[in-house]
Amino acid sequence: MDIEEIIDRIYKMPKSSLDKLSAKLSKVTYPKGHHILEFNKVETNVFFLAKGIARAYIPIDVKQITFWIGK
């Protein structure tokens, strides 16, 4: 699945706008288990998942409390 298909599933926008947005994006690949976001850190990037599943959790004591799972 390419980025235009991913964005189109979220919000349909004019082709010219989609082209401009797509030109500003780059594809990155991370291995399973990689942390994309860090707790208590402001992120300056936006991520779209093309493949795989992401889990958001908060570390509390020695546990991980999951509050979101997405694909």
Commentary on this structure:
Helices cover 24% and strands 21% of the residues. With 71 residues, it is α+β, with helices and mostly antiparallel strands. The protein has a two-stranded antiparallel ribbon.
What's this, in brief?
The protein has 71 residues and is an alpha+beta fold. 24% of the residues lie in helices and 21% in strands.
What would the keywords be for this entry?
2 helices; 21% strand; 2 strands; alpha+beta
Strand residue percentage: 15-25%
The pLDDT mean sits at: 90
Question: What separation lies between the terminal Cα atoms?
Answer: 12 Å
**Class from secondary-structure proportions:** alpha+beta
Biggest sheet layout: 2 strands, antiparallel
Calculate Rg over CA atoms.
Answer: 15 Å
How many distinct beta strands?
Answer: 2
Query: Any low-confidence stretches, pLDDT <50, length ≥5?
Result: none
| Helical proportion, percent range | 10-25%
* Cross-sheet strand order for the largest sheet: 1-2
How do the helices and strands follow one another from N- to C-terminus?
Answer: HHEE
Strand and helix map with partners:
Blueprint: H1 3-10, H2 15-23, E1 54-60, E2 63-70
Antiparallel strand pairs: 1-2
